[in-house]
Amino acid sequence: MSNHLERDVRFLKAYAVVTSVLLGVLVLGGFQQQTQKTKFEEIDVERINVVEPNGMYRMVISNRPRSIGPIYKGTPFGYAGGGRPGIIFFNDEGTENGGLTFTGQRSADGGYRASTHMSFDQFDQDQVVNLDYSDQNGRRVMGFSINDRADVNIFDLVKQRDSIMKMADTVARNAALARLMGPRNGIPLSAQRLFVGRDPAKSAIVNLADRDGKPRLRLLVDSLGAARIEFLDATGKVTHTVSDPTASGRR
């Protein structure tokens, strides 16, 4: 009886040791799996989704066909994807809040179009800080701009617009669209307040605008190197100009 007991005790000890070793291996393996990083020297990919633990988008990097359309709190709206190659950013609520897109292509007739656009969106609205390059057959605009936007929820705005677009009566539809896109309490839905860059006339320019987006002060150096400061009224008419008094003497 004692021999059986001793044998059982030895078996239980051996079992305990083996079980402990196996458990340790499993724990160590699980820890290594959680902390191990995969390294790639090169990777080809059409789209990368960076998501939060709850599955909400944080950033999407993609080519054109697999690019994402606008998203509001995880819900697609506005238009389908497939037209915005680049990087799209999302806020803590899974709503798009900016991105970087780029294009460039020569057509069969020899002409070309190219653009790069980086923007940051107002909360629950559209872009308010922009960095742009646009080029159509050498007609180039490039610069930095800041926009004001009314506090109108973009998801609700687009939903109303889509509903209006279904109206059969053209006159009524256009009137409804004008009301929808009109100012809110005297504030335009969108107004460019600042532009710093280069215009199609090859001038280096700084435009400062009022809250309606109408330029009121312009600093300009034209394509020939002449500098001036222009003051404008609300209709866009230049009311006063300050030019370099030595410019004529240098030419």
Helix share of residues?
A: 10-25%
Radius of gyration over all CA atoms, rounded: 31 Å
Distance between the termini: 120 Å
Determine the number of helices (DSSP H or I, runs of at least 4 residues): 4
Structural class designation: alpha+beta
Secondary structure tally: strands: 14
Main sheet, how many strands, which sense, barrel?
12 strands, antiparallel
Shape: elongated
Mean pLDDT, as a whole number? Answer: 89
Low-confidence stretches: none
* Order of H and E elements: HEEEEEEEEEHHEEEEEH
Strand order of the largest sheet: 1-2-5-6-7-8-9-10-11-12-13-14
Strand content: 35-45%
List the topology elements:
Blueprint: H1 2-35, E1 47-51, E2 57-62, E3 71-72, E4 75-76, E5 86-90, E6 96-106, E7 112-121, E8 127-136, E9 139-149, H2 154-164, H3 170-180, E10 190-198, E11 204-209, E12 215-221, E13 227-232, E14 238-243, H4 247-250
Antiparallel strand pairs: 1-2, 2-5, 3-4, 5-6, 6-7, 7-8, 8-9, 9-10, 10-11, 11-12, 12-13, 13-14
Helix pairs in contact: 2-3
